Input
Amino acid sequence: MGPNIKLARHFALAVICCLVWYATATAETAPRDSAERHNTLVFGYLPQVFYNVDIKDATGLMEVWSRMAERKMNNAGKISTVIFKTLGEAEKALEHKEVDILVIIPEEFVRLRASFHLEPILSADYGKHFYNELLLLVRDDSGITRIEQLRGKSLMVDTGQQGTIPMKWLDSIMAARGSANAQGVFSSISKYTKGNQAVMPVFFRQADACLVGRNHYDTMVELNPQLGRQLRILERSPGFVTGILAMRKDNRNPICDDVVKMLQEMHTEPMGKQLMTLFRINRLIPFKPEHLVSIEKVLRDRRGKADSAGRKNQ
Output
């Protein structure tokens, strides 16, 4: 690692420490009283959105941005944040209307939207590409050229921010080729929350194949070009949006429009750009229905397969 990269990382760490100290002095908890809640917009974060980011550091950064945003709002109000440990905690908060906006991975949004009348408002643009593809990789010298040749092999999976989508997508393409699902094809499947944990065993011939997000793989190849020369893409998924900001449809908070506008403009301001760089986010853009098309198709296909299997077993 070069001295400039080390210096940049040390500087970023120093910035985070200062921001966390400041946030500790000003942080607020999400208010429960309805009168207090009137001018407070509560953001709820699901744990999977913090891919490769320390949650404590992230909490501090979000609180700092909240205090800055409050000073710029046209309407007086407060921004509060809460980090849920589980999806069940988020569901309970939605049921009691204790959270206004959820920052969530798309799969979980699809699961919750009907039950809690959630409306997607913004989508996250990560990495070099708005959509993140899934790549099924093998060593170039492995002799494996077709997915059917992976029977009895080992698979490493980067679940990261994608939830169960990687395995559902892999099951769908295997079913389309007339194979069993992945569990019935591979001798072993190991799941990891970081891309390098899935990729490096294949590179070092400790595993046969890996399933990883393109954005994470591209970053690894930039740091180690040898990966790109020795690993080959066997299959590539359609692009999946990585993150969604969704709001309760019955939300009437007067500061909501101000906050959403500032979120869309974060990448144009020096401080906002620094925060987004730390989280590897390019920008937040208005949600469009096509952002969820590929994920909805994978979930629908797998649901259909499960229903079909259930009818056969009856």
Q: What stands out?
A: The first helix runs from residue 3 to 26. Confidence is low (pLDDT under 50) at residues 3-29, 307-314. The radius of gyration is 21 Å.
